[in-house]
Fold this sequence. Notes:
- The structure is a single chain.
- This protein has 458 residues and is α/β, with parallel strands linked by helices.
- 58% of the residues lie in helices and 7% in strands.
Amino acid sequence: MNTVIQVSYFLAAALFILGLKRMSSPVTARGGIVWAGVGMLVATFVTFFWQGMTNYVLMIAAITLGSSVAWVSGKRVAMTDMPQMIALYNGMGGGAAAAIAALELVRGGLGNGHGHTALTLAVLGGLIGTISFSGSLIAFAKLQGLIKRSIVFPMQQPFNLVVFAAALVIGAALAFNGAGGYLVLAFFLLTLTFGVLMTLPIGGADMPVVISLYNALTGLAVAFEGFVLNNAAMIIAGTVVGAAGSLLTQLMAKAMNRSLANVLFGAFGHAPQAAGPASEAGALKSIDGEDAGIMMGYSSKVIIVPGYGMAVAQAQHKIWELAELLDDRGVQVKFAIHPVAGRMPGHMNVLLAEAGVPYDKIYDLDEINPEFPTVDVALVIGANDVVNPVARTNPESPIYGMPILNVDQAKNVLVVKRGQGKGFSGIENALFGKDNARMLYGDAQEMVGKLIQAVKRL
């Protein structure tokens, strides 16, 4: 039976890897999720036949309860709330790995089933998993609006370092002496506290990086605990998730032209930064929906740039309706998505897919940037920092060097925005004052509705 279990674990691992590979493309992502889900089902089922396994009633009850909650929440959650859901579920994964570590540290000390290597891995998994758990919960609270601002206090980073160092010292004691009881409790309280303290100062603009990082940490924690339990499925699945999350974190940080350390300890976007030079900020010029609709209706080429504001207004369906109308008039319409648009990697892609936008109309930053000089109208809806030209022109700007969508190079720019507020970086957007830019003030869904009516009247 043990051979069947191990073969099943490797089959599950293969399904995880193939599923992850298929998730790399929007076209095959749905199938990839199904493949990975089947792998998880196989791994869970064969675990019931593990030698010495007991507590079947409790396990079935836990699986039933967890699956029911996940099914209902998954069905009901709005697409705009997906970042919160990802953060929450990611935290649960880290918490589960930490719970395994806690159990093994309490019952499996030296001379009681575990050696130094296993205890060290258990401590590392517990450390990483607990930080991911508490940090993800704070990220969830920020994304859900339960925590509305970044929290900073004097000597915060040195204090965080002391907390982390204390956790490491106790963790070393657990790994080499096998002590349990209150020392285990102190270890997890310190790591929980560190996860909270590390995430509180991080601003909303950095959430795509933070979510990717905690996803990687959860995967690594699961892999470490897989070594402790000698469970091949956990080792392989955790390693794959950890590697994928680490790569994604690097890509997200690169898209913001920042180091991971700067994201975690720089508190970017938590407070207003200095504005760019006054010469870069001209007067803002408004336009009404009728004139903007006429401009778009008589264009040859339009690029739509969605951002988090579109998600908040849930305007993705209206945007696609507008794009179809323009397409019927012979206007070439494309969508441009910045890698860190929204609150999680791929956030805008998910919303546009929900609205029915074909994948071949959606372009990444590198693909679409050369086309902006040939565009008649660039429609920016709810995006801000990712289209701010000071990232190219002003070395003093905190976002200087960050790759942006070159919207300012379009012949005309329409910006849908609720007001004249700044982006998450806290700086003025020089795009809005450009001679070729016009502001459409109001709720994104309402403004796009006016554009639709204007195009229909042509």
